[in-house]
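Hey team,

Sharing the [acyl-carrier-protein] S-malonyltransferase run so nobody has to redo it. Sequence (830 residues) first:
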Amino acid sequence: MRAVLFPGQGAQFKGMGRDLFGRFSALVRTADRILGYSIEELCLRDPGQRLAQTQYTQPALYVVNAFAFLAAQGAGGAEPEFLAGHSLGEYNALLSSGVFDFESGLRLVQKRGELMSRAPRGAMAAVLGLDCALLSDLCKKAGFSGIHPANINSPSQVVISGAESEISRVQKLIEAQAGARYVRLNVGGAFHSPLMQSAADEFQEFVGRFTFQDPKTPVISNVTARPYATGDVGMQLVRQITSPVQWNDCVRYMIARGVRDFQEVGPGQILTKLVTQIRQEAAPIVLEDVSRVELSLSSSDAAKSTKTADDVARHVGVLPPTQSETLTDNRSPQASAAKPQTAAELRPSPVVLHDVVPPRRPADRIFGIDPTDLGARSFRDEYGIKFAYIAGSMYKGISSKELVVRMGRAGFMGFLGTGGMPLEEIESDIQYIKAELREAYSYGCNLLHSPESPALEDAVVDILLRHRVRFVEASAYMQITPALVRYKLSGLSKAADGTIVRRHRIIAKVSNTEVARAFLQPPSQRIVQSLLANGQITAEQADIAGQVPTADDICVEADSGGHTDQGVAFALFPAIAQVRDEVVAHRRYHYPVHLGAAGGIGTAHAALAAFMLGADFIVTGSINQCTVEAGTSDAVKDMLQEVDVNDTDYAPAGDMFEIGAKVQVVKKGVFFPARANKLYELYRRHNSIDEIDPATRRQIEEKYFALSLDQVWEETKLYLSRKSPTELDRAKQSAKHKMALIFKWYFARSTRLAMTGVVRNKVDFQIQCGPALGAFNQRVKGTALENWRNRHVDQIAFVILEETGELMDSALRRYAEVRDKRQIAVPAVA
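Structure output:
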């Protein structure tokens, strides 16, 4: 197999393309017209030494690479099996694969070079003799937080980007390492790093004006080191500006796919030398056969369908077109032991679906609704995801780091469930996610309102800012807090043309119109000025604050598992949509505020209802709790896979016990809902523990707590003395508050028992869940997906969206038929 490679910036030299310009005079004239100068004169004579300037280098290389490929094909060269390019060269790979024409590509490259040339000043350096992981670790330990890998060219060659001062200072650190070399590059920008964000933001708007075709020949993306996916071109080109070039992995992937002949087309032999180096130094990627699990909704129809989850994934462009293979890194046993779940293991694994996703029938799919068509394209583009589908957060890490990584790699987005997690665990999980997803995929974290502990909320925001987490799901907020505003405003800046750049995005989960209205307003000036006075935001950010809503997007949460206001989606969504429209029109925001739907979404029918209501995206929760990746016990998952739509009930929320807030929980096979409600009734009727009659007290101690109330209070006092002395002081002053704290001990214990899977205490498990899971269980009954051990969060998402597309197509077809009949029945009037 053969691959054609196109070089990028750094390969240019005066005189390049000398033998080509005369052969393609029509294209030369096109280039001159678009650029406004002679491309031939620039390449051959380089007046004013402009060929070294980014805004001129990039169009020049694009043109010469394009001519070189045309010349090679004209000489009778066979069509390659793969195409790839280094940085700028990737545009030539896309051109050669028919994604866009010569003129469109040149306009894109011209704009890209212009924007990158006027991005904030920075610097780059090549580091030889150190691998990327070791280099990153050295920089981190030495405090060089502004150093970013820009090009991972081979196992022992990494180009770094950053501020000029940091790139200069890090030289001594690198050269102190045995065998390492440092070479400063003659560039004025920190390319392929977060310092290019302003360029990427402007480029995103420009890219939106173009229409791209799907590649005819697989093009390997610099960002993902995998083939470009269907409909993925614009997003990947924008990401490429701020993401490291994964050249080492691009070549390893092509070698694994059987490529033996690499042909460099364009000036120089830089990439050819890198391929040789990679072959000598890099551990191979191994293609492994993966077993397939057959699923069937109907045993009589099982032999009629051959649809696979990979087919779904490949149709929407998430996986490359392989047969029965998946890619895994060939890691050492030691590495496997240290990190039992690799990134490759988190990719969608092949599963044969028989009627779970009905076979595609082109004749029936008149409207051709695809999973990538559902929801708002602008939402997908803003969050850098392929599908308008999010796995929402579930507290205490039930929405685990593995779940988030798996969703991200598949083109979705997941939110880490930070609520109730220790701060050090939150930080550790974010570091894991960043290492696995790099900057190629999207992810987010939950930010839970903590009215009793504002310091905790601030501490979580500190972690989010420290790790540059771009997306946050804000939940349980009844009012806007300084911590939330600080996160929002810390991501604001202005581009060179004065447009507002929003680095941080907040999706606010709301279940009433007033909270939605508060999130749709700009942050309170009182909070803004306080943050400014404390030095927590800049003057520019304070100035911009009045021009943007507090939340970038809103998720309307109807009745759901866990905390719930028991809202009805069909009433709540239109009401909040109207509030959104009113506020956006009044405030004249420059960006759309998207509206998503959550609560009760466990099947394609529910997803269809949400999209037909006008949802720009959907958020799932309960169904993800019963998957391999969910961070809860196997005992809980065994119970959840048996839940039906009627197997949930409402109980008091332990964290909001005194005000009677509700959570929706599993009632099948447990006593928790009945016992929790009994405790709340006792709290309402009595002013102290001492008022409870002896028989009831004995029942609570023996059946509910398995401890005396005095023992529970001693445990509670010990905990509060360390965590919240003020709460302990309140309890000493108020017998009713002391009673509440004793009862809340049961809620904490019930959660702990469930998450650790202490089966002997199964009747006291608190499992927060909504009926959506029961609906999903019913849908997959009798299939391999009936067993949670075969459920992966991304595969469930694919199944739901694929079937939603079919349902929407069918619905549109029915209404189209009604319309056509009416048109036929209308008599002529002229």
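The chain is about 45% helix and 15% strand.

Ping me if you want the raw files.
A.
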